[in-house]
Amino acid sequence: MEGKSNGSEVVPRNVLRLGALAAIVAISLPVFFGYGQQHVFDPVELQELAKRGIEQGKGNSTLVISSVTELVKNRYGDHIFDSPRWMFNNAGGAMGSMLVLHCSLSEYLIIFGTPLGTEGHTGRFMADDFFTMIVGEQWAALSNVPQREVYAPGEQHHLPRGVSKQYRCPGECWALEYARGSIISMLPFGFADTFTSTLDFVSLLDTILVSAQGIIRELLRGKV
């Protein structure tokens, strides 16, 4: 007849379970809320790179975008995709094109803009967003302020975590956009317009694939 398990066997099992649970919580909370991550990018430095790219581009949008992209690649190396590609992005009622330069669980870096102008909701995230204009203007407004904010080329619009605004690009506009925090918390906002409006599942799939590629690549390097 098999004997009953004694307390000495139960305790280690419970300790292991508690340890595993603690490990899951320790990993999940920073990933979801965006705290305590290793950050590769510096928004101040990105703004300076953007200004240099604007100067090199001499008013030509194509040259400005390529100059900024090259400067960022030279500075941050393997953390930037070698051959990024353009795709449509619809979010918060606004539409534009984006070039994904970097994506990980705690940061993303893109070129975003449109030659046509756009307007929408910024979103309200568990992440800080730094929108550095490189071509054109961005206008923004808080719900309780009757004056607009205006951001010209070289200026950086910082949207703190938990804050939302209305924004508009009145004409052609391009920006180097950097987000730091819980990138996962931003995904529903980025995907929602596909299901409620555009039904552009090709662009959605492109976004998912490039995001997954970037996240996996950075995780393999030990970066969250």
Q: Could you characterize what this model shows?
A:
With 224 residues, the chain is α+β, with helices and mostly antiparallel strands. It has two domains: 33 residues, no CATH class; 178 residues, Sandwich (Jelly Rolls), CATH 2.60.120.10. The chain has five helices and ten strands. The strands form two sheets. Strands 1-2-3-10-5-8 form a six-stranded antiparallel β-sheet. A four-stranded antiparallel β-sheet has the order 4-9-6-7, with no helix packed on it. A hairpin with a 2-residue loop joins β1 and β2. α2 packs across α3. The longest helix has 27 residues. It is globular and about 65 Å long. The mean pLDDT is 90.
Write a compact overview of the structure shown.
This protein is of the alpha+beta class.
Q: What can be said about the biggest beta sheet?
A: 6 strands, antiparallel
Strand order of the largest sheet: 1-2-3-10-5-8
Q: How many helical stretches?
A: 5
Count of the domains: 2
The shape is globular
Query: Helix/strand/pairing class, anyone?
Result: alpha+beta
Total strand segments: 10
Q: Poorly predicted ranges (pLDDT <50, ≥5 residues)? A: none
CATH homologous superfamily (4th level) name of the largest domain: Jelly Rolls
Rg, nearest Å: 21 Å
Second rung of CATH, namely the architecture of the largest domain: Sandwich
End-to-end C-alpha gap: 51 Å
| Helix fraction by DSSP (H/I, runs of at least 4) | 40-55%
CATH C-level of the largest domain: Mainly Beta
CATH topology label of the largest domain: Jelly Rolls
How much of the sequence lies in strands comes to 25-35%
Return the string of H and E elements.
HHHEEEEEEEEEEHH
Instruction: Give the mean pLDDT.
Output: 90
